[in-house]
């Protein structure tokens, strides 16, 4: 195709800031907006391996001059790209939908909600079947000139006490549409597979306080998985094994899942203690089977949690079973063909307790430390776990970050859950438990306060 037959343009994707996550925005350089005759609030189609859409907003100040499109993790998944990849963008007149059908984006979640409330949450949001979207509303909309569609989209109320991810099962008409006052919205109670589904349960946006760790992992794991031919061409072997070490609850598992999703790789998990506990001979067999399945499904990431239980120092174990299991793991690592696009990520809190043989070149020869988050990290993690939560004005996440010295991600997640439970307790008398639903007016008033957090911290 000749260059002038194509409209739109190519642009490189970069990560959005955490506060933009889940809002359906596309931050574009002013020069690109001018080139494509785009005004703030206009809809663009974003085409990677898949196609999705977003509303255009001006760039962050410090981005001026950079030729990048900023998208959040769900949007990148919806477009089938990672940050650093190129997408094609073009202006698009999105049509108002007659009908949009949503379902929970997870298998194990049953939802009974108010389609009318959902309609407000996604009002004016450009959507297309197969998109995974999050109910992350409740942010303040800055004053100033703004086209009404954009303001309406940004002023979305919260939907529930926590962020919920939904998949757009279908729309009428097909293609890229937005919800307006006339749209009929339906919420199916259980997960339904849309066409061309792609998991996006966890992305880099969902791990907080780990910017450097994410950079390291992207280089070590995501790049080789996405561009194996590059590594072959350069004649370097991509890493096969990466060891993550840090205390429990710091987000190692979540991070590994995010890397898998962002690399469009399949994710396999081995839980160390579980596999060790199996019957005689079973442990090795299970290990072999998972390695085999992961190789077949490549590109894939095989995550081994608490590897110290599978591979303790051989000098220190007495049992034959343990020795055989370490040997089996070494054999499997060595047996991985260079061309198999599989990376094994192992996690441990006790790096010193692991058999040294596992650290040899070609095995787990890369190491990344995942530490306890500092105040800034805690602030970011709190931001992630309160995304989509209706927070009262009194809640100051920076204050909470200061008060939670020593908390790891899992503790902070638990804290926000506890605070939400406090809120529910307060509202309990107003809920109609008999018919199992929450009146919409109560739902709208529901908000988590500073006191709820303080009560949760005390527990
Ligand atoms: P680990 O594998 O290090 O034990 P997990 O990844 O299993 O930790 O974390 C448990 C839960 O704690 C996660 O599902 C998440 O809710 C929360 N969590 C932990 N670390 C983070 C983080 N850095 N950012 C956001 N959430 C986190």
Automatic annotation (TrEMBL):
Q: Which molecular-function annotations from GO does this UniProt entry contain?
A: ATP binding; ATP hydrolysis activity
Example GO CC term: the record gives: cytoplasm
What domain of life does the native source organism fall in? Bacteria
Residues in domain AAA+ ATPase? 238-374
Recorded family membership? Belongs to the AAA ATPase family. CDC48 subfamily.
Q: What region holds the CDC48 domain?
A: 110-194
Give the UniProt keywords, A-Z: ATP-binding, Nucleotide-binding, Repeat
- Residues of the CDC48 N-terminal subdomain domain: 10-94
Q: What is this protein called?
A: Transitional endoplasmic reticulum ATPase
- Full protein segment contained here: 1 to 459 of 761
Natural source organism? Sphingobium xenophagum
């Amino acid at each position: 195709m000749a260059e002038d037959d194509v409209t739109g343009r190519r642009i490189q994707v970069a990560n959005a800031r955490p506060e933009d996550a889940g809002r359906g925005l596309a931050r574009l350089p002013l020069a690109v907006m001018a080139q494509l005759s785009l005004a703030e609030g206009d809809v663009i189609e974003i085409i990677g391996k898949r196609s999705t859409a977003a509303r255009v907003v001006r760039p962050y100040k410090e981005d001026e001059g950079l030729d990048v499109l900023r998208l959040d993790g769900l949007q990148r998944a919806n477009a089938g790209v990672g940050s650093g990849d190129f997408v094609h963008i073009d202006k698009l007149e999105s049509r108002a939908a007659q009908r949009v059908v949503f379902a929970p984006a997870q298998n194990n979640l049953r939802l009974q909600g108010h389609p009318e409330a959902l309609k407000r949450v996604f009002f004016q949001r450009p959507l297309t079947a197969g998109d995974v979207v999050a109910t992350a509303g409740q942010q303040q909309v800055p004053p100033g000139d703004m086209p009404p569609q954009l303001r309406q989209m940004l002023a979305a109320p919260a939907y529930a006490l926590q962020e919920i991810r939904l998949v757009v099962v279908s729309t009428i008409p097909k293609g890229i549409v937005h919800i307006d006052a006339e749209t009929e919205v339906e919420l199916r109670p259980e997960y339904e597979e849309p066409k061309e589904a792609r998991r996006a349960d966890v992305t880099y946006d969902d791990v907080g306080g780990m910017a450097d760790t994410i950079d390291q992992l992207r280089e070590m794991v995501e790049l080789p998985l996405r561009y194996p031919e590059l590594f072959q061409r350069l004649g370097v072997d991509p890493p096969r094994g990466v060891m993550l070490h840090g205390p429990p609850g710091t987000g190692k598992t979540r991070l590994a899942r995010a890397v898998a999703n962002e690399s469009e790789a399949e994710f396999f998990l081995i839980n160390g203690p579980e596999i060790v506990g199996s019957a005689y001979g079973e442990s090795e067999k299970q290990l072999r089977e998972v390695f085999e399945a992961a190789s077949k499904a490549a590109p894939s990431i095989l995550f081994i949690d608490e590897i110290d239980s599978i591979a303790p120092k051989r000098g220190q174990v007495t049992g034959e079973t343990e020795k055989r299991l370490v040997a089996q793991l070494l054999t499997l690592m060595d047996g991985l063909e260079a061309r198999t696009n599989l990376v094994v990520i192992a996690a441990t809190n006790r790096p010193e307790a692991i058999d040294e043989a596992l650290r040899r070149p070609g095995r787990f020869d890369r190491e990344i430390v995942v530490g306890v988050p500092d105040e800034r990290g805690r602030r970011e993690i709190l931001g992630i776990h309160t995304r989509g939560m209706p927070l009262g004005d009194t809640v100051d996440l920076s204050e909470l970050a200061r008060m939670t010295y020593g908390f790891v991600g899992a503790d902070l997640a638990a804290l926000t859950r506890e605070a939400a439970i406090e809120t529910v307790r307060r509202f309990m008398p107003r809920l109609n438990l008999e018919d199992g639903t929450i009146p919409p007016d109560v739902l709208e008033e529901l908000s988590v306060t500073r006191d709820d957090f303080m009560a949760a911290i005390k527990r």
